[in-house]
Design a protein that fits this description.
The protein has 248 residues and is mostly helical. 79% of the residues lie in helices and 0% in strands. The chain has twelve helices and no strands. Helix 1 packs across helix 2 and helix 8 packs antiparallel against helix 12. It is globular and about 50 Å long.
């Protein structure tokens, strides 16, 4: 239980801006803790979603403006760690087309013009889609999307190889049994939040994540943390658009 608790804290500290403290004696490199970190990713989505929903409920008196603010603050709550990845992946794709080393480009601390433009377009689309969900009171659907997208990241971590020692460690620690457990528990939770029809969105999310991973690996030549962040962001955007289209 202590390993799961440390893994959960590690995930929260790594993928959100929520303050988390560790003891000097905590060894976060242990396989059990890394496995629990991956397992707790959907809980990260739940916490981020609940915080965002509270912000929206506080601001819903100003209608669409409150929805826009809440949608923007959602990305702030995870420190733009996934959004920033889109710029790096876009730059790497164009660098690869130009005959440059995509891995060197993706690791650079700066971003190029194409990365900036793709990031701007993506942020506009995502804020618009999430705001539309809030404006139409699809709050539980929003929460479900955040949880599902992180189960998809578990899926990618388990089934793909990475050019990253940290992600390779996460992959080695995460078992298929734990992945199935996560899928099962999340399925029950999503049905309770929404209804059985939303399981179609859930199933579709794995296809979206899989195709995204295949595309990035084919165009860039590898998968790393930036690719994983891009997959999460793209999956959330596609699912939000699907819900807007199918549920309204």
């Amino acid at each position: 239980m202590n390993n799961f608790y440390l893994g959960l804290k590690f995930a929260i500290s790594y993928f959100t801006i929520f303050p988390v403290k560790f003891k000097e004696s905590d060894d976060l490199s242990k396989k059990e803790i890394l496995s629990s970190m991956v397992l707790s990713l959907p809980i990260n989505g739940l916490l981020l979603g609940l915080a965002t929903i509270l912000i929206y409920l506080f601001l819903n008196s100003i209608s669409i403006l409150g929805a826009i603010i809440a949608s923007c603050l959602y990305m702030v709550l995870y420190g733009f760690i996934h959004t920033e990845a889109i710029a790096d992946v876009a730059d790497a794709i164009y660098a690869k087309h130009g005959g440059k080393d995509a891995y060197e480009v993706i690791k650079e601390p700066t971003i190029g013009a194409m990365g900036l433009l793709y990031s701007i377009v993506f942020v506009i689309l995502k804020v618009s889609a999430l705001s539309y969900l809030f404006y139409n009171n699809l709050i539980l659907e929003f929460l479900s999307i955040l949880i599902i997208s992180r189960v998809c990241i578990q899926f990618i971590i388990y089934f793909f190889e990475f050019k990253s020692s940290f992600l390779s460690s996460l992959k080695d620690s995460f078992s298929f049994k734990r992945f199935l457990l996560s899928v099962f528990i999340t399925s029950i939770f999503i049905v309770l939040l929404t209804d059985f029809s939303f399981l179609l969105i859930y199933l579709s999310s794995f296809l979206v994540a899989f195709l995204s991973a295949k595309f990035i690996r084919k165009t860039v030549g590898f998968l790393n943390g930036d690719a994983l962040g891009t997959i999460l962001e793209f999956t959330e955007l596609v699912l939000a658009l699907m819900v807007c289209y199918l549920w309204l």
